[in-house]
Amino acid sequence: MFPEGQTEIPTSIFDDREMSCDWERYQKNPFTSYHIAEGKICVIKIIVCNAIRNPRNPKRVGQVIPDWHQDIIHFPVSDTDDTVHGANQAHSLIRGLKKLPVREAIRDNALIYGIAPK
Is the sign of the CA dihedral 79, 25, 43, 13 positive or negative? Predict the structure, then answer.
């Protein structure tokens, strides 16, 4: 999972230009995700907000950087799209360039939930 002693979510896990996630509106219980069935031991919930959609430049207070904009897109997966895991109505993307201030905004608006060992 995370390096021993690390107390916060590492920003490096949020660097995909098309970051795949499940939208809570459609996935009421994230612990039923196939990722958990495949052995993942936690769920990270991202609270989508303006700080993520339109990140600001920390070096120029208040300046929104258009190139850092993140689109939040509902992008369901069908059985034919993913023949291994099957359909996923909740699948979504956080699409955009993930410079460090963007990753920090995502991390700062995320919560981590562990699951009990079996």
Answer: positive
End-to-end CA distance of the chain: 17
Placement of tokens 């955009």 in the chain: 96
User: Both tokens of residue 13?
Assistant: 């896990």
Residue with tokens 């052995």: 39
Q: Would you say how long the chain is, in residues?
A: 118
The closest alpha carbon to 22, from 50, 39, 43, 51, belongs to: 43
Token digits for 6? 């690390």
Distance CA(112)–CA(108), nearest Å, equals 11
Give pLDDT tens digits for 61-91.
879 999 999 999 999 999 888 888 889 999 9
Q: Is the pLDDT of residue 108 over 90?
A: yes
- Between residues 112 and 2, which one has the greater pLDDT? 112
